[in-house]
Design a protein that fits this description.
This protein is of the alpha/beta class. The chain has 5 helices and 8 strands; from the N terminus they run βαβαββαβββαβα. A hairpin with a 2-residue loop joins strand 3 and strand 4.
């Protein structure tokens, strides 16, 4: 049975920078949970950042807090641990929180802390994709479900 790496915040875990969650009630995600497919993971917490923590955004290859503190090393560490988890469990699909400097898959905040988003991906998404793992956003659960079906029938 295929496992799926899922952002912990989408599962109701209070791991976001503000101490909250971004719980998804998507039926596909609930079915995966019921089937025991989901592996919960928060790269930012795994990388050593606390909850709550200062808001951070990508500025090119760096991840900076609003106060100008470089937290790139923690984001890189979390991404590496996400990849290690995926490899250990032979995970080929991830569903991650859109917009996050770790998990964004098609857009991230622009680094100015003004709420603007730009095309791009988070640190963890970049590393997982470079390693051949299919990454979908929380807005693409139907696509992830179709990919899961295709992997299991191939």
């Amino acid at each position: 049975m295929e496992k799926i790496l899922v952002s912990a915040c989408l599962l109701g875990e209070k791991v976001r920078y503000d101490g909250g969650a971004a719980t998804s009630d998507d039926p596909a995600l609930q079915r995966w949970l019921d089937e025991g497919r989901v592996v919960s993971f928060c790269p930012e917490v795994a990388g050593g950042l606390g909850t709550p923590r200062p808001r951070a955004e990508r500025r090119g290859p760096l991840v900076m807090t609003e106060q100008g503190v470089d937290v790139t090393a923690a984001f890189d560490r979390g991404a590496a641990l996400a990849l290690e988890t995926a490899r250990r469990l032979r995970i080929r699909i991830a569903v991650l929180k859109e917009g996050s400097p770790s998990c964004g898959s098609s857009e991230v905040h622009d680094g100015t802390f003004c709420g603007r988003r730009v095309p791009g991906a988070g640190v963890t998404t970049d590393l997982l994709r470079a390693s051949g793992i299919r990454v979908f956003s929380d807005r693409q659960l139907a696509d992830a479900d179709a990919c899961l079906s295709a992997l299991e029938t191939s």
